[in-house]
Design brief:
It contains ten helices and 15 strands. It is of the alpha+beta class and 388 residues long. The strands form four sheets. Strands 5, 6, 7, 8, 14 and 15 form a six-stranded antiparallel β-sheet that branches. α2 packs antiparallel against α3, α4 packs antiparallel against α5 and α7 packs across α8. The chain is globular, with a radius of gyration of 20 Å.
Length: 388
């Protein structure tokens, strides 16, 4: 394919700026959602709020350039406890109300000119330093946090994707948890949220045979997604309706008028970005129109997956730019280690050593400055945080 050769990369400063603008927006909206994740909050309302804020913030960028596209790159999904991913209910579907102790995963993305920044973060409702998360919940949360920190240090030019796969599995094991089987982290390209290179976590035997190894290269961008469960780490569909979809590259002549109208609206409104049926003007028509499109693979669904009842799944996802001076993490919020108490820890010396290395790309030159900045900004939070 000649096209991909010509796609703009982060070798271009303007592209980096666009990625950072998208990142700033998702970090800002994520922070607002974390603050709104309170007892008795409605998951649906939070999802709607997330999408509304992503749309508002992206609309402010590059106002003069009418041709430039921008907006939601991944609709807000809020998956609670054993729900693994992609939960964002329609107004006609049952809602979930947050309870004390619920483990809440927030996942979203925005783009400026097709340059995508995604993020996911996990909080536990009501957790504080005085009332920390404990038990299996704390194990999954800490394992996911540390696995994402380890992944950040391994996603760099010359390394192979399976190094990330193996390290995430080992960290899961140290906390008696399992990475969710077969979940993929994708390379990001302009207008493409599921680029060619992928990192798989906890592959089954069959997946391991089929899944290719890749090498990271300079000027690539990745959405690194870590999902760790205190349960079996097996995702299965239940009765939650799929609401998030995206257009594929396939073609087919649709038979039904509703399907054709729906497909045409999707192409105009969202292009290749994932979207929620809720954002279509007429939800009922959209629910009808999507069926034929999915049957003929014009539109692909993002399944709502669940681990077994009683399991807790934690997720951290960040966007990283592979710059000449090192990997640059542009999305993510500080992890509050003080309100998470696990009895378990990482014994593996290699991984301990890896986690102690700096993940700040400018660390070598500006150690003192970075240290001062880190102290003022994060006051003792985990390393490798986003520079605002």
């Amino acid at each position: 394919m000649v096209e991909s050769e010509e796609l703009p990369t982060i070798a271009d400063d303007l592209v980096v700026t666009k990625y950072k603008m998208a990142a700033e927006i998702v970090n800002k909206v994520l922070k607002e959602l974390v603050e709104a994740c309170k007892l008795s909050a409605s998951v649906r309302d939070l999802c709607i709020l997330g999408d509304k804020r992503l749309a508002e913030e992206t609309s402010k960028a590059f106002k003069k350039d009418k041709k430039l596209t921008k907006g939601i790159a991944f609709p807000t999904c809020i998956s609670v406890n054993n729900c693994i991913c992609h939960y964002s209910p329609l107004t006609s579907e049952p809602d979930v109300i947050l309870a004390d102790g619920d483990m809440v995963k927030m996942d979203m993305g925005a783009h400026i000119d097709g340059f995508i920044a995604v993020v996911a973060h996990t909080v536990v409702v009501g957790a504080t330093v005085e009332n920390p998360v404990t038990g299996g919940k704390a194990d999954a949360l800490l394992a996911a946090h540390l696995a994402s920190e380890a992944a950040l240090r391994l996603v760099k030019p010359g390394n192979e994707t399976y190094e990330v796969t193996e390290t995430v599995s080992k960290i899961g094991e140290a906390f008696d948890c399992k990475p969710v089987e077969g979940m993929l982290s994708h390379q990001l390209e302009q207008n493409k949220i599921d680029g060619e290179k992928t990192i798989i976590q906890n592959p089954s035997e069959a997946q391991r045979k089929e899944h290719d190894k890749f090498e990271f290269a300079l000027h690539e961008v990745y959405a690194v997604d870590v999902l760790i469960s205190s349960g079996e780490g097996q995702g299965r569909e239940k009765d939650a309706k799929i609401t998030v979809y995206k257009k594929t590259e396939d073609t087919y002549m649709l038979k039904m008028k509703t399907s054709r109208e729906f497909f045409s609206k999707v192409s105009k409104q969202f292009g290749t970005m994932p979207f929620n049926l809720r954002s279509m003007e007429e939800e009922r028509k959209a629910r009808m129109g999507v069926v034929e499109c999915v049957t003929h693979k014009l539109i692909e669904p993002f399944q709502v997956l669940f681990d077994k009842e009683g399991a807790y799944v934690a997720q951290f996802k960040f966007t990283v730019l592979l710059m000449p001076n090192g990997p640059h993490k542009i999305t993510g919020l500080p992890f509050d280690e003080a309100s998470c108490k696990s009895e378990k820890s990482i014994e593996d010396a290699e991984i301990q050593k890896l986690l102690k290395t700096s993940a700040n790309p400018k660390a070598a030159k500006k150690k003192k400055k970075a240290a001062e900045k880190a102290v003022t900004e994060e006051t003792g939070a985990a390393p490798a945080l986003v520079e605002q």
